[in-house]
Amino acid sequence: MSKSNGLSIFNQLRPISVGFDNIFDHFERMFDDDFGVSTSVNYPPYNIVKTGDNSYDIEVALAGFSKKDIKVEYADNLLTVKSVKETSENKEKNGVIHRGISKRYFSKSFTIADDVEIKNAELKDGLLKISLERIIPESKKPKIIEVN
After folding, report:
1. Residues 34, 79: one domain?
2. pTM (2 decimals)?
3. What is the CATH number of the domain that holds 78?
């Protein structure tokens, strides 16, 4: 999608939407960064799984990585999983004759909605699982408005 198409869609939605400016601005930034074109790197592979009405898991395949090799950060609605560079003393081969499991350096980011809370992250059997839950505040729950 070209930048002009992305902006025209949002410009068409703005007159009939109230309070969604930050969402439209976020998507415009994604299109400005050629989202979907330059971000075609699919490493590491991942799943996003809906595990309940208001809960989700992000599963990232990280074979060969340990807890000390990865960093999970959250700031400004952006959850980032990235590898930590090895220090020079950890680069020795330790008897490895052939290295078929690569430890490529990566950074993968996910946009998280305002009402979604990150519960925990666990690395087990080469799979990093980040659990999230949508917290619906009372102000967003359906209510009946009495007509006077």
Report:
1. no
2. 0.67
3. 2.60.40.790
